[in-house]
Amino acid sequence: MSLLTVVEAPRAPAGDHEPTASELPAEIGPERPVAVALRGVGKVFPAGGGTITALDDVSLSVHRGEFVCIVGASGCGKTTLLNLVAGLDDATRGSVGRRGETSFMFQEAALFPWLSVARNVELPLRLAGVPAAERRARAAELLDMVRLSTFADRQPHELSGGMRQRASLARALAKDAEILLMDEPFGALDAMTRDVLHDELERIWRATRKTVLFVTHNVREAARLGDRIVLLTSRPGRVAEEFPVEIARPRRIEDADVAALARLVTARLRDEVARHGS
Amino acid sequence: MAAESTAALAGLDALEAQHLARAPLAQRLWSATWPKALAIAIVLGLWEVVVLSGWRPTYVLPGPLEVLGRLWQDLGTANLWQAVAITMRRAVWGFGLAVAIGLSIGTLVTRFAVLRAAIGSLITGLQTMPSIAWFPLAILLFGLTEEAITFVVVLGAAPSVANGLIHGIDHIPPVLTRAGRALGARGLAMYRHVILPAAMPSFVGGLKQGWAFAWRSLLAGELIVTIANRASLGQLLWVNRELHDAEGMLAIMLVILIIGILLDALVFGQVERRIRAKRGLLGA
Fold first, then answer.
1. Taking Cα atoms as reference points, which of A32, A21, A19, A107 lies closest to residue A62?
2. Residues B15-35: b if buried by 16+ CB within 10 A, e if exposed
3. Contacts of B135 (CB under 8 A, 6+ apart)
4. pLDDT above 70 as % of chain B
5. What is the DSSP string of A203-226?
6. Is residue A121 in some structural domain?
7. Taking an 8 Å Cβ-Cβ cutoff, which residues of chain A contact chain B?
8. Taking CB atoms and an 8 Å cutoff, what residues of chain A touch B12?
9. Confidence category of residue A278, pLDDT binned at 50, 70, 90
10. Gap between the Cα atoms of A91 and A148, Å rounded
11. What value does the mean pLDDT take over residues B239-253?
C-alpha cells in the first residue's frame, strides 16, 4: 500500500534521548495504524545573530483516519509543525514519520486568480500528469462534494470567503493524499459561515476517512471538530497536554459538552500563556 | 441535520456570491467611445482656434479640416500604404526581437541573485536613456541600414519588457508560490503554472510600455537613418518638411499618432483589460 516515509534530522546532538528509526515501524504497524509519527522533534530557526527554537522535543502520533486539532497561543510553532509533516521544511532534530502523501490548506484560500474554480481544483491533478478527461471528471466530483458545482466556471474573485475556502478544500482533496494538513483554514471567516463549514468538513472527513491535522487558535472549534486536542506551549513549542474528545458526533459548536471541554482546554492554555508574563 | 446544513449553505452562497450583470454591448461601446470622441473634438477645436487666430500663416500651420482632407486624399495613394507597410514591418520585427530578449533577460535576472545585483539597476538605467542618443553609435556600427534601426528599437523596448517581467515576479504573493509548492509544482512546472501566470498583468504592462518605446525609437530612427528606395513614414515626414508641404507633413503625423493609439488601445489595452477583468482587478 502506501509507503512509509521517515525523515531523520541530519545531525543528532548528544545528550538528547534520540529515537531510532527501528522504533517507528513497530508503532506504524498494521495492528495500530499510525499515519503521522513525530519523535523528539525540534526545530531551530536562525534569527538575527541568534536562534529561535520554534519546536522542542515534540512527540505526537496521529492514527489513520483520526482528526487531531492542535491548539496553542501565538508563537507556539503550529505552522512549523505542519510544514515539517508536509515535508516543506526539515526538522533540526528528531524524526518525522508519515504514511502516505500530504496535502495542505491555508488560512487564505490561495486560489489562483487566473484560473476558474474548476481549473484550480484540477491543477494538482494536472501537475501529477492525470489525463484531461479524467481530471475534469474528478474535479466535478470534488466540486459536487463541497457543493460548488454551479460555481465551477466562475473565477475565484466572484466567490465569497466561505466559498473560496470550500474550493480550496476541494483542491486540497484533489491530490488524493491520505493526510490533510489544515492551517487555521476558517480563521478569517465570520462565525455563521465557519459554523456551516464545520458541518461540511465533518461530513467530508467522514466520507473520505482522511487523517486530518487541524491547527487553530480557536479552542471551541477544536472541541467541535477533533477526536483529540493537542495543546502546544509557546516559545518553545512543546506538547503541554492532550485532551481526548469523547463527545458523540455529529456535534454542534454550541453543545454543552463542547463548551465544557473548551473551558477546560482554555484554562490550561491561560496557565501556559500566563507563565510567559511572569 | 445534514439537510439543515445544506439549506444554510445554499442561503449563505446566495447572499454572498456576486451577481455581476453585464450591460448590453451597444451601451458598453457607447460609454467607451464618447469620452474619446469628445477629447478628439476638443483637440481639433483648439487647433482650429490657433489657426484662426492668425498666429502663423496657413501654409505653415494649416487647419484640421485641410489636413484631414489631405489625409483622405493620401489614403488613396499607394505611396502612403507602402510607407505604413515598411514602418509596421520594422516595428513588428524590432518589437518582437525586443520581447524575446527582454523575456530572456527578465527570466535570468529573477532566477539568479548575482545577475540581479549586477545588471538589475542597469536595466532601469537603459530605460532612461533617450533612444535618439543611440543613433550615432548605431550608424557607426551598422551604417545606414535596417540593422541600425532594429538595434535602437530593441534597446528602447527590451528594458521595459524585462522590467515588467521582473516586477511581476517580484510582486507575486508568497501564499501563491507556497500553495503551488504544496500542490506539487516544482521547477519548470512551477514557472509554467504559477509564476508566469501570476506575473502576467505586470508583464503585459511592460509590453505596453515597451511598445510605446519601440514606436518612438522607430520613428526617430526613420528620420535619421534614411535608406534609399524605402519610403517609410518617418521618411515621408521628412520629405514633406523639405518640400514645405505642411499639410502633407501634418497628415503623416496624424497617421503615426493614430497607429500608435490604435495598437495601444486595441492590442495591449484589450489584453490588459481582459486579464484584469478575469482576476477581479477592475474597479466595479
1. A32
2. eeeeeeeeeeeeeeeeeeeee
3. B148, B152, B220, B221, B224, B225
4. 95
5. HHHHHHT-EEEEEES-HHHHHHH-
6. yes
7. 86, 88, 103-104, 106, 108, 110, 112-115, 123-124, 126-128, 147, 151, 155-163, 171, 175, 192-193, 196, 199-200, 203, 250
8. 160, 162, 192-193, 196
9. low
10. 38
11. 93
Residue with cell 520629405: B239
Q: How many domains does chain A have?
A: 1
- A242 and A260 in contact (C-beta within 8 Å)? no
Cα separation, B57 vs B35, whole angstroms: 32
Contact B193 A113 (CB under 8 A): no
pTM for the whole thing? Answer: 0.81
Spatial separation of the C-alpha atoms in residues B60 and B145, rounded to whole Å: 32
d(C-alpha B47, C-alpha A184), whole Å: 63
The secondary structure of residue A192, as a DSSP letter, is H
Contacts of B278 in chain A (CB under 8 A): 113-114, 155
Segments forming the whole domain that contains residue A130: 111-176
What torsion do the CA atoms of B96, B102, B103, B107 make, to the nearest 10 degrees?
170
Q: Is A225 within a domain? A: no
Place of cell 528620420: B223
Per the domain annotation, does A3 fall within a domain? no
Q: How confident is the model at residue A234 (pLDDT cuts 50, 70, 90)?
A: confident
Give the mean pLDDT of B80-91: 95
Amino acid letter, B129: M
* pLDDT exceeds 60 at position B90: yes
Q: pLDDT by residue (tens digit) across A82-103?
A: 999 988 888 999 999 998 889 9
Q: Is pLDDT of A73 > 90?
A: no
pLDDT at A25: 45
Lowest mean pLDDT among A168-172, A240-244, B280-284: B280-284
Domains and CATH numbers, chain B: 61-278 (1.10.3720.10)
Q: Is the pLDDT of residue B284 over 70?
A: no
- Cβ neighbours around A6 below 10 Å, total: 15
Under 8 Å between Cβ of B77 and B255: no
How far apart are the C-alpha atoms of B262 and B268, rounded to whole Å? Answer: 9
Query: ipTM value of the model?
Result: 0.80
